[in-house]
Amino acid sequence: MENKQVGYILVGIAALLIVIVLIFQSALKEVVAATCTAPDHAVYCPMNAGINQQTYLALGIVGLLILIGLILIFTKPKEKIIIKKVKEKKKKLDLSSLDSKEKEVVKILEKENGTIFQAELMEKLGAGKVGITRLLDKLEAKQIIERKRRGMNNIVVLRS
């Protein structure tokens, strides 16, 4: 449900509550007029003060509801930003200029949906830190992969 609709509902409920409060106040005043034994009971009866306080409190709460309803009606909701990811056509990588280890890295990346942690790649290839770094440096120079730093780890991303 939109904010504007909620605002209208709140204002409608508040209007209904005003009617109920005023009806209840008049009924209480009739009861007080009939039961108050003080002289000049219409003005001085202590129960009248209590009725008025209750009425003002109820109308204050209803006023707050109306204020919230009006704010909801007249404020513009934040615009939703919808980002549609357009499927890009993956261009076929030219693997002819790569050596066997480089081809193996590309195949592993394709199996892993284009991303893998460098440490995991190192395990899969059975290579050491220096060897994997040099291998990835070559692939990065050929613009086949890209390394992104994530904390203490690198993520290897296959460029499309």
Would you give an account of this structure?
The protein has 160 residues and is mainly alpha-helical. The chain has 2 domains: 3-74; 100-158, Winged helix-like DNA-binding domain superfamily/Winged helix DNA-binding domain (Arc Repressor Mutant, subunit A). Helices cover 62% and strands 9% of the residues. The protein has helices spanning 3-35, 41-44, 46-74, 100-111, 118-125, 129-141, and strands spanning 115-117, 145-150, 153-158. Strands 1-3-2 form a 3-stranded antiparallel sheet. Strand 2 (145-150) and strand 3 form a beta hairpin. Helix 1 runs antiparallel to helix 3 (46-74). The chain is rod-shaped. The two termini are 41 Å apart.
Number of strands: 3
Task: Please trace the helix and strand order, writing H or E for each element.
Answer: HHHHEHHEE
- The number of helical segments is 6
Query: What portion of residues is helical?
Result: 55-70%
| Uncertain stretches | none
- Overall shape: it is rod-shaped
> What structural class is derived from the secondary structure elements?
mainly alpha
Our count of domains comes out at 2
Main β sheet profile: 3 strands, antiparallel
Radius of gyration: 37 Å
Terminal CA distance? 41 Å
Q: How large is the share of residues in beta strands?
A: 5-15%
- Mean pLDDT comes to 84
Strand order of the largest sheet: 1-3-2
